[in-house]
Design brief:
The chain is of the alpha+beta class and 1004 residues long. The chain is 46% helix and 11% strand. The chain contains 39 helices and 23 strands. The strands form 6 sheets. Strands 1, 2, 3, 4, 5, 6, 7, 10, 11 and 12 form a 10-stranded mixed beta sheet that branches. It has a 5-stranded mixed beta sheet with strand order 20-19-21-23-22. A two-stranded antiparallel ribbon has the order 8-9. α1 links the parallel β1 and β2. The radius of gyration is 36 Å and the shape is elongated.
Length: 1004
């Protein structure tokens, strides 16, 4: 047995630290084999400690150090007080050794001549059956791996006696090697015990485990890892990188140094995929810190070199292999304790509902099967190449004017994604969208309903009700792509957003969907922002701070995409223009800002034609069409008094916010179509309201109507009424009451389209005489005006943007003698087209005739022919190339594109499901806001139903999951997060498995 053991205790200041220190000193006094001497190092003001009699009677000396002193630095301060030949026992304020700990550590050291370090078993202070640490190893790449952390102590590791390293707390270091084995301050408080073990092994010694020597430890002490996730990630990664640079052969150090930043980039990607975004910044911080600590690296390498007597091969048998690491990190795939509920998309009839919707869609839009391009309403062709689609989505030169440089509308990115799905002919993607719109709407509504109910029939009802929304059908027959996309995206946003506080995967998906929805309908931003604030308040109110952090991520991609446009609009004094509809501004039918229009909005109809009813039956009768939505509205109102009333009221708040958006939108005009003011389309607000109404109706049907026959009757009546309401809209294309047309492939004459094939930058000046006697002038680049190239910078402008072409346009039609070809060529314009406004009046016809006659007399403009698009002239002069960006503009473009791509890429990585994220999702209830007193939950399987045929009405037919029954938040946007919940015992897991069979279909 060693003659002397000198204990070094490192403590911090504070009341809790003082209490822990007194407990540790009491444990030292109770040792069966007492330490020869005890030195206390206080990091901070030691005056209160010096006044304590308990401290004075135990320690031989007190050293006062800076509050920022690390554990390794504090130990180094106490080393001069250790007598020659004494072993050093490393302790902290929170390490309370059990009575025989030192006796067993010393005995093991005496019995093991080759041992340089003896490591105890660390157990939790509040539960001495839980192992905190018993041995540490590392992988080939230097990652530290705990060998027994978090396990229940059943003696399973008591025969282990050899390890590569151990937790630094409680280590007993042999006196003969204490000068060579000092904790390395460069490790920043992580892996210090592992590093000591590696150096001991290289010096011919061993780290011997003494499981019978037990020390109770608490988290947050001077020698423990930081409790904060980000700080812990930083120190752990810094220690790993430092050890990699220190352990590597001298020739390999430069290679490791050069790989630090590329590895940081790669690990940032894997951290995001692994749903650990809090580790990204620490990763870069650790890499940058490790790169420039040349002195610390040199000192650490020198210590190893001075003590080393063995080769690195001596530690190889104690490393953890990749297969062992996977086995240790696997927390039990498939052991979720039983899924709360199965998805049952195919067995529950969801697939059949989608297939039926596809049949209805083909029957309603049969003509589209033969159309290569969709036109009419707010539709335009798409670019001919995928590269041009994405060019329209980037900050740069805008192809709707001359010399206009600035941000793209975020909607252009949505169009680029859509067009990229059919790269051979991007415009055909819009045809497919219209054909698949109804089944996609049913699919989205069905999945959104899985957050509200477990009943297969109600999920189908929700999908059908969502697809038959009057605002959606109106958008389909009127050709409004933004409104159609919003309606298809909203249920998926609901599906992800209501559980965004649970996991980073859901938060990543919801953030992308939120960006896409607001890109298609910026007018929804205020309502969605309000709902986000409410959700954040609920989550914070239930003390789910990690969930709040996930919710804070939701608007980040949206802000990144809209920030350049917002800055541009604010700099031009038009902040309200941010709410303007993107894409082609079409002055089509929509509800007016009067009593009749708002009455139609209140009934769920965005136009005064009431989804086609005004066109098929007399107006006095058609005016009662909104009553067909009354059964659904009545069911929705019942959610406020349903057993799950918190969820119902929250959904009604969603409905009210959407309805308020629609009411306000019709009174706001920020966009112009050839000089004609056009109010914001209210249909997107009604889509938001509709999802709240449908969700609330499902809550009522699921929880309030306990009689199965009554529930079925109510659902059938509501669905049937909506089906009748949809008949005029679904038959509109066959009855020639739809704005949809077959193409055109180009909005310009075929001659221009042929010359500009492949999206060549050829400009056409389009002059359109208006019925009020005015003249609309615009420039179209390429083969056609396209949907993705449209910009709210121009459609919401109150003054000319880019080069002012208004003067040139007027001069072309006047008798003024000037060099028209020269000015046109200077602007890069190759063609001039005099178009005809739809429904041309006398004033427009007179002006058009005069314009044709005037341009025909201009030298240098060759009459190219009269087409169905208008009269075309070709410029004979040499045309200047399209203006390019300056060097500063190119720098701005690169910065904007990089930041936007980083935000979107991060969200994409977060949204990628992993095995762990899928397992965590299955372990929680899909239904959000479920309460304990809900009267009925459907059986899981058919055999369960046979067993429950005689169950009385109102009884609980199937055991429900305990977390859902004990939900405190009771809201569809906030539930307790169970990320840090302890794993259930084996008995509990077996019981849960018996009650809830494993899910075979994944939540995400």
């Amino acid at each position: 047995m060693p003659a002397r053991v000198h204990a070094i205790i490192v403590a911090r200041t504070g009341s809790s630290s003082r209490a822990q220190l007194l407990r540790t000193l009491e444990a030292l006094r109770a040792q069966t084999t007492p330490a020869t001497a005890v030195t206390l190092v206080v990091c901070g003001d030691a005056s209160s400690v010096r006044e304590s009699e308990a401290v004075a009677s135990t320690v031989e000396g007190i050293i006062e150090a800076r509050a920022t002193t690390s554990f390794a630095e504090a130990v180094e301060l106490a080393r001069p007080r250790v007598a020659e030949g004494s072993a050093i026992w490393l302790l902290a304020q929170d390490t309370a050794p059990h009575p025989r700990a030192l006796e067993r550590l010393s005995g093991t050291l005496e019995r093991s001549p080759s041992a340089a370090i003896i490591a105890p078993k660390l157990v939790a202070t509040d539960n001495d059956r839980e192992i905190v640490s018993l041995g540490v190893s590392m992988t080939t790449l230097g990652r530290s791996v705990e060998l027994a952390a978090g396990e229940l102590d059943q003696g399973q590791h008591d025969r282990s006696d050899d390890a590569l390293g151990a937790d630094v707390r409680g280590l007993l270091i042999r006196g003969e090697v204490r000068d060579a084995l000092r904790p390395d301050p460069a490790l920043a408080g992580a892996d210090e015990g592992l590093d000591l073990g590696v150096r001991a092994r290289l010096g011919g010694g061993r780290v011997v485990l003494a499981p019978s020597a037990r020390i109770s430890v608490s988290p947050g002490g001077p020698a423990a890892l930081p409790s904060g996730r980000s700080r812990r990630a930083y120190v752990t990664r810094l220690a790993q990188l430092h050890r990699r640079l220190v352990y590597a052969p001298a020739a390999a150090v430069p290679l490791h140094w050069l790989s630090l930043l590329p590895l940081a980039l790669w690990r940032s990607v894997t951290d995001l995929v692994g749903k650990r975004p809090e580790a990204v910044l620490p990763e870069w911080g650790a890499a940058l810190t490790a790169m420039f600590r040349f002195g610390a690296i040199a000192r650490s390498r020198a210590r190893i070199k001075a003590f080393r007597t063995s080769t690195w091969a001596s530690i190889a048998p104690l490393r953890v292999t990749s297969s062992e690491l996977r086995r240790r990190l696997d927390d039990g795939h498939g052991s979720e304790g039983g899924a709360v509920s199965e998805l049952r998309f195919f067995s529950g009839g969801g697939a059949w509902a989608v297939l039926a919707a596809l049949v209805v869609s083909i029957a309603s839009f049969t003509s589209l099967l033969a159309w290569p391009t969709l036109g009419g309403g707010g539709l335009l062709p798409l670019r001919q190449t995928v590269a041009a689609l994405w060019s329209d989505a980037a900050w740069g030169v805008r192809d709707v004017a001359v010399g206009l440089v600035g941000p793209a509308d975020p909607f252009a990115a949505v169009v680029a994604v859509l067009g990229s799905l059919w790269p051979a002919g991007p415009s055909f993607a819009m045809v497919l969208l219209w054909l698949l719109a109804l089944p996609l709407a049913v699919l989205g509504g069905w999945f959104a309903a899985t957050r509200v109910t477990d009943r297969e029939g109600l999920r189908i009802f929700a999908g059908v009700a969502w697809a038959l929304a009057p605002t959606f059908l109106t958008a389909l027959i009127d050709g409004r792509p933004t409104a159609v996309l919003v309606h298809l995206l909203l249920p998926w946003l609901f599906h992800s957003a209501v559980v965004a506080h649970r996991s980073w995967g859901a938060a990543g998906s919801a953030s992308l969907l939120l960006a896409a929805v607001i890109a298609c309908a910026p007018s929804l931003a205020p309502a969605l922002a309000l709902l986000w604030i409410i959700a954040l308040g609920i989550v914070l109110g239930t003390a789910q701070f990690r969930g709040a952090g996930r919710l804070l991520w939701l608007p980040v991609p949206t802000v990144a995409l809209f920030a350049p446009l917002a800055i541009w609009q604010l700099s031009h004094g038009t902040p309200l223009a941010l709410l303007g509809d993107p894409g082609l501004i079409w002055a089509g039918p929509q509800a007016a800002a009067d009593a009749v229009g708002r009455l139609a909005l209140a009934g769920g109809f965005p136009t005064e034609t009431l989804a086609g009813w005004m066109d098929v039956i007399p107006a006095p009768i058609a005016a009662w069409a909104p009553l067909l939505c009354a059964p659904l509205a009545a069911l929705a109102l019942g959610a406020a008094v349903a057993p799950r009333w918190r969820a119902g009221i929250t959904l009604l708040v969603v409905a009210l916010s959407g309805l308020a958006t629609a009411f306000l939108a019709v009174g706001v005009t920020v966009s112009f179509a050839q000089g004609t003011p056009v109010a914001i389309w209210p249909g997107t607000g009604l889509s938001l309201a509709w999802i709240g109404v449908v969700g609330a109706a499902v809550v009522t049907l699921d929880t309030a109507l306990t009689l199965p026959r009554l529930r079925i009757l109510a659902a059938v009546v509501a669905a049937s009424a909506l089906a009748v309401c949809a008949v005029p809209a679904l038959s509109a294309l066959h009855m020639d009451r739809s704005a949809l047309t077959n193409g055109p492939d180009s909005t310009l004459p075929a001659y221009v389209a042929a010359q500009a094939a492949g999206d060549r930058p050829i400009a056409t000046l389009v002059l359109t005489p208006q019925n009020d006697g005015g003249l609309a002038a615009e420039v179209a680049w390429g083969a056609s005006e396209t949907l993705g190239s449209q910009s709210t910078m121009l459609s919401t402008a109150v003054e000319p943007q880019g080069a002012d072409i208004s003067g040139l346009a007027v001069d072309l039609l006047s008798a003024r003698d000037f060099d028209a070809p020269g000015e046109l060529a200077q602007m890069g314009i190759s063609y001039v087209l005099v178009a005809q406004v739809p429904g041309e009046g006398d004033k427009a016809r007179t002006l058009r005739t005069a314009a044709v006659a005037s341009i025909d007399q201009r030298a240098g403009l060759v009459h190219a022919g009269t087409t169905d698009r208008g009269v075309l002239w070709r410029l004979e002069a040499e045309v200047a190339a399209q203006s390019s960006m300056t060097s500063s503009q190119q720098g701005t473009a690169r910065l904007v594109i990089t930041l936007q791509l980083l935000a979107v890429f991060a969200a994409l990585l977060l949204s990628i499901p992993t095995r762990a994220s899928r397992r965590a999702a299955r372990a929680q209830s899909r239904i959000v806001g479920r309460v304990a007193d809900e009267p009925i939950v459907l059986p899981r399987h058919a055999e369960d139903r046979e067993l429950l045929d005689d169950v009385p009405v109102g009884a609980i037919e199937d055991p429900q999951d305990e977390p859902a029954l004990n939900d405190e938040a009771m809201a569809p946007i906030a539930e307790p997060v169970i990320d840090d919940a302890p794993a259930p015992s084996a008995e509990a897991s077996t019981a849960i498995d018996e009650q809830h069979p494993k899910s075979t279909e994944e939540d995400r």
